[in-house]
Amino acid sequence: MAFSTIEIASGLSKSQHRRAALRGPRAVVSTRPAGRLMSAARFTDVRLTDVTDDFLRTARAWSTEFSRHESELKRVLGAQNWEDRQADRAAMIDAVEAGLLCRYVVTGTAR
Fold first, then answer.
1. Strand spans (E) along 24-99
2. Which of helix, strand or coil describes residue 108?
3. What is the pTM of this model?
Protein backbone atom coordinates (compact mmCIF):
# COMPACT_ATOMS: atom_id res chain seq x y z
CA MET A 1 0.00 0.00 0.00
CA ALA A 2 1.18 3.52 -0.68
CA PHE A 3 -0.38 6.90 -0.02
CA SER A 4 0.62 10.45 0.78
CA THR A 5 -0.36 12.37 3.87
CA ILE A 6 0.24 15.68 5.59
CA GLU A 7 1.15 15.59 9.28
CA ILE A 8 1.89 18.13 11.95
CA ALA A 9 5.64 18.33 12.54
CA SER A 10 6.94 16.83 15.77
CA GLY A 11 8.45 18.86 18.59
CA LEU A 12 6.19 21.90 18.25
CA SER A 13 5.01 24.11 21.09
CA LYS A 14 1.28 24.06 21.92
CA SER A 15 0.70 27.31 20.05
CA GLN A 16 2.63 26.07 17.00
CA HIS A 17 0.68 22.80 17.06
CA ARG A 18 -2.61 24.71 17.21
CA ARG A 19 -1.49 26.92 14.29
CA ALA A 20 -0.54 23.83 12.24
CA ALA A 21 -3.90 22.18 12.99
CA LEU A 22 -5.76 25.26 11.78
CA ARG A 23 -3.74 25.61 8.58
CA GLY A 24 -3.57 21.99 7.49
CA PRO A 25 -6.25 19.71 6.05
CA ARG A 26 -8.86 18.30 8.46
CA ALA A 27 -7.14 14.92 8.82
CA VAL A 28 -3.95 16.59 10.05
CA VAL A 29 -5.29 16.61 13.62
CA SER A 30 -5.06 12.82 13.90
CA THR A 31 -3.56 11.85 17.24
CA ARG A 32 -1.40 9.12 15.72
CA PRO A 33 1.22 9.44 12.99
CA ALA A 34 0.53 7.48 9.78
CA GLY A 35 3.47 5.13 10.35
CA ARG A 36 2.08 4.03 13.70
CA LEU A 37 -1.40 3.58 12.24
CA MET A 38 0.02 1.38 9.46
CA SER A 39 1.90 -0.76 11.97
CA ALA A 40 -1.21 -1.05 14.16
CA ALA A 41 -3.09 -2.25 11.06
CA ARG A 42 -0.45 -5.01 10.77
CA PHE A 43 1.41 -3.66 7.77
CA THR A 44 5.10 -4.55 7.62
CA ASP A 45 8.07 -2.75 6.10
CA VAL A 46 6.36 0.57 6.84
CA ARG A 47 8.36 3.49 5.47
CA LEU A 48 7.74 7.20 5.53
CA THR A 49 9.52 9.28 2.91
CA ASP A 50 9.59 13.01 3.55
CA VAL A 51 8.49 14.81 0.37
CA THR A 52 7.79 18.17 2.03
CA ASP A 53 10.13 20.16 -0.23
CA ASP A 54 8.53 18.73 -3.38
CA PHE A 55 5.07 19.35 -1.94
CA LEU A 56 5.94 22.97 -1.16
CA ARG A 57 7.15 23.58 -4.71
CA THR A 58 3.98 22.00 -6.08
CA ALA A 59 1.71 23.97 -3.73
CA ARG A 60 3.38 27.24 -4.70
CA ALA A 61 3.06 26.42 -8.41
CA TRP A 62 -0.58 25.40 -7.95
CA SER A 63 -1.33 28.70 -6.19
CA THR A 64 0.48 30.70 -8.88
CA GLU A 65 -1.39 28.99 -11.71
CA PHE A 66 -4.71 29.27 -9.88
CA SER A 67 -4.06 33.03 -9.63
CA ARG A 68 -2.99 33.25 -13.25
CA HIS A 69 -6.37 31.85 -14.30
CA GLU A 70 -8.34 33.78 -11.70
CA SER A 71 -11.03 35.24 -13.94
CA GLU A 72 -11.81 31.95 -15.68
CA LEU A 73 -11.81 29.97 -12.45
CA LYS A 74 -14.02 32.47 -10.66
CA ARG A 75 -16.60 32.05 -13.41
CA VAL A 76 -16.50 28.27 -13.00
CA LEU A 77 -16.08 27.98 -9.23
CA GLY A 78 -17.66 31.20 -8.03
CA ALA A 79 -15.72 34.11 -6.58
CA GLN A 80 -16.11 33.09 -2.93
CA ASN A 81 -15.05 29.50 -3.59
CA TRP A 82 -11.99 30.73 -5.48
CA GLU A 83 -11.09 33.12 -2.62
CA ASP A 84 -11.56 30.39 -0.01
CA ARG A 85 -9.35 27.94 -1.90
CA GLN A 86 -6.58 30.48 -2.37
CA ALA A 87 -6.74 31.46 1.30
CA ASP A 88 -6.52 27.80 2.34
CA ARG A 89 -3.55 27.25 0.02
CA ALA A 90 -1.77 30.35 1.32
CA ALA A 91 -2.30 29.24 4.92
CA MET A 92 -0.97 25.74 4.21
CA ILE A 93 2.04 27.08 2.29
CA ASP A 94 2.79 29.42 5.20
CA ALA A 95 2.58 26.53 7.68
CA VAL A 96 4.89 24.33 5.58
CA GLU A 97 7.39 27.19 5.19
CA ALA A 98 7.30 27.70 8.97
CA GLY A 99 8.09 24.01 9.54
CA LEU A 100 4.69 23.26 11.07
CA LEU A 101 3.43 20.77 8.47
CA CYS A 102 5.22 17.92 6.68
CA ARG A 103 4.21 15.82 3.68
CA TYR A 104 5.07 12.12 3.55
CA VAL A 105 4.68 9.21 1.18
CA VAL A 106 3.83 6.20 3.33
CA THR A 107 4.39 2.66 2.09
CA GLY A 108 3.84 -0.72 3.68
CA THR A 109 3.24 -4.37 2.88
CA ALA A 110 0.04 -6.10 3.98
CA ARG A 111 0.50 -9.28 5.99
1. 43-50
2. strand
3. 0.87
From the number of C-beta atoms within 10 Å of its C-beta (0-12, 13-18, 19+), residue 11 rates as: exposed
Quick one: which H or E segment has residue 7? strand 2-8
CATH 3.40.50.150 fits 2-110, yes or no: yes
For residue 6, which phi and psi values (nearest 5 degrees)? -110, 130
Contact between residue 100 and residue 12 where contact means Cβ atoms under 8 Å apart: yes
Sign of CA dihedral 92, 94, 100, 102: positive
Residue-wise pLDDT tens digits, 9-65: 999 999 999 999 999 988 888 878 898 999 999 999 999 999 999 999 999 999 999
